[in-house]
# Entry
Amino acid sequence: MTRARAGTFDHGIHPADHKVHTEALVIERMPLGQRFSLLLGQHIGAPAKAVVRVGDEVRRGQRIADAGGFVSTSLHSPITGRVVSISDQRHPTGALQRSIVIEADPYDGQRLHTEAPVDPATLDEKAFVSHVQRGGLVGLGGAAFPSHVKYAVPDGKVAHTLALNGCECEPFLTSDHRTMVERPDAIVRGVDIIGARLGVKQADIGVELNKLDAIEALEAAVARRGAGAFPIHVRPLVVKYPQGAEKMLIKAMYDKEVPAGALPIDLGVVVNNVSTMASVADWFDRGEPLVDRIVTVSGPAVGRPSNLMVPIGTPIRDVLAYCDVVIDDHTQVVMGGPMMGMPVTTLDAPVLKGTSGLLVFREDDLRTDPAGPCIRCGRCLDACAVSLNPSMFGRLARAGLVDPMEDWHVMDCMECGACTYACPSHIPLIQLIRASKSQIRAKRAKNPGGKS
Amino acid sequence: MSIAPLALHPAPFIQTTKTTPGIMRDVLLALTPPLLMSLYSFGPAALLIVGASTAGAVLTERIFSPQGRSSLLDNSGLLTGLLLGLTLPPGMPLWMAFVGGVVGMGLGKLIWGGLGQNLFNPALVGRAFLQAAFPTAITTWPARGDGWFSMPASVFAPPMLRLNVDAVTAATPLGLQKFENISTDLGQLALGATGGSLGETSALVIAICGLWLYSRRAFDWHIPVSMLTTVVLFSGALYLANPAVHPTPWFMLSSGGLMFGAVYMATDPVTSPTTSRGTLLFGVGVGLLVVLIRRFGGLPEGVMYAILLMNACTPLIERVSQPRPFGRGVNP
# Structure
């Protein structure tokens, strides 16, 4: 089998990937806990609406909240037990959010309550989309965007290519990696289900070259599949951050640029995370909704780095304790990867559908020295995957000149943080950019007729 | 339920190991071989002159820097002084070297707002000032004395008094070439066994230091590569057109301050463009100006003015060389 030259996009950075700590560790199921909080707004879009009441008995796998709109999805109980409250609970960012709190029934066997399998071929687009929404499926790469939205192709658009994102370009994270190694057939099955529904001509799984075992496992699974309705190819990609950003992935695999303001579907491409494909297969073939997810627990302060299968809603505190993490006030806990992850403000907050990793650093591991002057070295320009001028953004933002930043296309910034990683003067470029972007958004909201 | 005490820093949580003081340190390290070469070629006077210009720059920064003491930590003042000192002739009076350091740091950098704000290369501002103020001293190339320890008397000339120019002077290869059409052996040029400014006589040593700096990713390769390529192409065309008048491109490449300028001066990130295309343009501009000044201007050497002129063009180059943002100007 001939392997095409590994593709990639322009610019970007090459941070040390730190995956060695967990990449060879088999996914381990974490013991079920006692108390779970299910945040109703843990996906992108409108919050879900609770369909259970305080005091209700619920079963593991039972739907407890329905989608609160089209861009929204449902929520299932990760545990058999009783709803003890529907109240405001902490999101990892510290914000309070309406949540369903469930306590486990210690006498229950905790078998997963599944629904009847569904043959996807029997569903038309509308029924298919609403079935996916009922399974609570979201993109598992980290953004938690409701998956079904991508399968409702807008009128006038045609999806001819399904692009699967197996880059996992964030350092430390190995949850997608392990899923590709351990469940390649489930991923390929998911690709078949979604690809057939969309009617694509081809599907491509992009995997970076630091995951050779995943590439081999997927290639073997594709070979086992035989000839399907459309060809599936595994495409090795150069190791580079932020290749997992969907527009970068499309550039890397097809050498096409998604125009600013447009979506991949405008090029006929639908992009999905590989782990999401496994959950699609589980939902259709076995009737298992999304109640668990794989979380990589790693970082310099983790005693026992692991890839864990964690019930969604498990307190972060429990996950860290299970991995022998000792917390004090110099510990930095991060949800997601080290580049785009968010600082966890409270360990009471739960694991969410989008929690691809929990990383723990000591404060000494972080670079916290003060910012110096910009020496105009241009490293941020070379890092920027969307070819913006972060150095200029930094200068304008520090001078309080937010309006001109719009002319420099600051709104095209996807906040991947590569510029900030690359800056030798430790200038917090990404923070300056984010603050300016939200000022611009606030101004637009106040004056919708203004500059677009 | 309690909020656990946790450290709360924002993403990204990992960062490159390249830091501004680290980059400056690399450049300082890369300046050591030329400094040793100057010590070997010109004797202890070299060290005194470089020391004087460095003292001028560092003291000025220490006293007037808007960032206060902290700016010393990034080594950039030290770098300015060293760079200036290495571009001075071996007989330069110490007090002039000191004044050059003061002016380079003061007018070249601090007055703009300190590190990162200046338009012109501070070391070259200092040198340009000396060239204007003391045109004789800065174009006087004393012949080597009897022994390694002998120093030109002019080095110790007292300030503001009439300069006692040494009787014995030697011309630089570029001066010989320009005014007397005498060529210098390439081997001598490469090794630095010629007259010239302190740090810039051995093109080979400087080129090796440049390669090391590139391997450390301390500078952008676009500038030296485009600058040297332009010089070779332009002077090569002149040579082919009229070999009797014009020197070979290899002579142009290895003589004067070209290699020193290409490796240490034109690559100054602050005073060169930030964009890749911009740095290419900048290097081409410097290369063209160097050949124009050397071959058609009044001076034998033009690297300093070429770089300063292109420094002035940097904001314009920035404006025309911005990259096309991803997804802009493409149709689906």
Observations:
- The mean pLDDT of chain B is 87.
